Amino acid sequence: MKKLFLVMALAALLSACTNSSKAERVLSENGYTNIQLTGYDLFGCGKGDTFADGFKATSPAGKTVVGVVCSGMFKGATIRFD
Question: 50-69: string of b/e by CB count within 10 Å (b at 16+)?
């Protein structure tokens, strides 16, 4: 029972490190379509980033891209690609 509680607590913590509405807005405003958010990306962003939303989308050039939208509390967002 303790293990289940720990797993649930960890999942809740990691989901708090995403800002899916901002990530989707940033991608859309930059011309990406067919956006699929894939959840928290543990190693995708730098130290100063609070949120790390993984994604898969179609680029403005029509290519499928995979990456992460990194953002912080008092700063803008950066799109990084794998």
Answer: ebbbbbebebeeeeebebbb
Instruction: Give whole-number Cα distances, 65 to 23, 54, 60, 61, 81, in Å.
Output: 15, 11, 10, 10, 7
> For residue 42, which of 66, 78, 17 has the smallest C-alpha distance?
17
Name the DSSP class of 74.
T
The distance of Cα 13 from the centroid of its chain, to the nearest Å, equals: 14
pLDDT value for 14:
46
Map out the domains of the chain as residue ranges. 2-81
Rounded CA-CA distance 21/81 in Å is 19
CA distance 58 to 47: 28
Which pTM was predicted?
0.79
